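Can't paste images in this forum, so I'm doing it all in text. The chain is below; anyone willing to post the predicted structure tokens underneath?
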Amino acid sequence: MAGVLALVAGWALLLVLAVAALVAVVLASRRILLGRTGGTVECGLRATRAAPWRLGLAAYKPDQLYWFSAFGLRLRPEEAFDRRSLSVLARRPAAPAEVVSIGAGTVVVECRTQPCDALPAPRTVELAMSEAALTGFLAWLESSPPGHVSGLS
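Text version of the structure:
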């Protein structure tokens, strides 16, 4: 009886390890797929000060900033911010309590989105990123690709 129990426990452990390895491969493959077009950075997102931080990736597109959850399986963004309606209100270093969630050396940027068809009221969000990513984010906000006409494709 003990031998059968040990065999079942061994197979259960093997199954758990196989599922964990499969999940790791899927998440890594998704990260590679999201990053293959370039313009992606690690970026935390918090919708309100009371909400917890969510880790993820930000992808720069010509007119929008897409945000993908780090632990999701979808290849579609969970959040999309229009470049013209996004403005930076403030920036600060991550508080000691936040460092546990978003990492050391992270800068928190408070942003406001202006009303549009999808969002009838202004919305404030916080983005957490490295100093280097913040430089890229600010440059992206202030510029547009040469020859790019907004709203046309």
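Residues 94 and 103 are 8 Å apart (CA to CA). The longest strand covers residues 86-93.
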